[in-house]
């Protein structure tokens, strides 16, 4: 599994929104500038996230975007499934029911299924809040005089 820029940028955008959640709706232009990501590319990501329960949009002069739920309730796994599709390490595990002709006697399938479980469990256990907390613990916003 390789996470594309779409998935990585979606996480950066959502982390930005989580970090500024007390400021209300945030213009995409502000996020693009802070994250050094093209506004046009963020618009593509927003179109994917708008179909989920993660993002709220508001039009108009004071419009923009904000998280639809607390950062502690939004997992990396949710975001990556929206932006990347399946997180399965091999194609035969992408569907709920394995469609591979070899599934019944494949000697490698249990190993791939185990890897898939580890990936999913890990990504579903990490929230946006966890990422913000970890960043702050490791020196982010740690000013010394």
From the structure above, extract its key features.
single chain; 145 residues; mainly alpha; two-stranded antiparallel ribbon; 2 strands; 6% strand
Question: What would your notes on this structure say?
Answer:
This protein is mostly helical. Helices cover 48% and strands 6% of the residues. It has helices spanning 5-19, 28-35, 39-49, 76-84, 109-125, 128-137, and strands at 55-58, 64-67. The chain has a two-stranded antiparallel ribbon. β1 (55-58) and β2 form a beta hairpin. The protein is elongated and about 60 Å long. The model has no long low-confidence stretch (mean pLDDT 91).
Blueprint of the fold:
Blueprint lengths: L4 H15 L8 H8 L3 H11 L5 E4 L5 E4 L8 H9 L24 H17 L2 H10 L8
Antiparallel strand pairs: 1-2
Q: Give the end-to-end Cα distance, rounded to a whole number of Å.
A: 43 Å
Run of helices and strands: HHHEEHHH
The biggest beta sheet reads: 2 strands, antiparallel
Strand content: 5-15%
So how many helices? 6
Report the average pLDDT across residues: 91
Uncertain ranges: none
Instruction: Evaluate the radius of gyration.
Output: 18 Å
Structural shape: elongated
Alpha-beta classification: mainly alpha
The tally of strands reads 2
Q: What is the helix fraction of residues, given as a range?
A: 40-55%
What order do the strands of the largest sheet run in, or round the barrel if closed?
1-2
Can you describe this structure in just a few lines?
The chain has 145 residues and is mainly alpha-helical. It is built from six helices and two strands, in the order αααββααα.
């Amino acid at each position: 599994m390789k996470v594309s820029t779409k998935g990585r940028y979606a996480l950066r955008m959502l982390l930005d929104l989580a970090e500024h959640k007390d400021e209300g709706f945030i213009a995409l232009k502000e996020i693009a500038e802070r994250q050094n990501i093209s506004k046009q590319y963020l618009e593509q990501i927003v179109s994917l996230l708008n179909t989920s329960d993660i993002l709220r949009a508001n039009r108009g002069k004071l419009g923009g975007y904000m998280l639809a739920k607390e950062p502690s309730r939004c997992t990396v796994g949710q975001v990556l499934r929206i932006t990347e599709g399946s997180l399965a390490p091999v194609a035969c595990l992408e569907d709920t029911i394995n469609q591979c002709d070899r599934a019944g006697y494949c000697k490698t399938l249990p190993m791939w299924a185990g890897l898939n479980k580890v990936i999913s469990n890990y990504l579903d256990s990490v929230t946006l809040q966890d990422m913000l907390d970890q960043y702050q613990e490791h020196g982010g916003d740690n000013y010394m005089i």
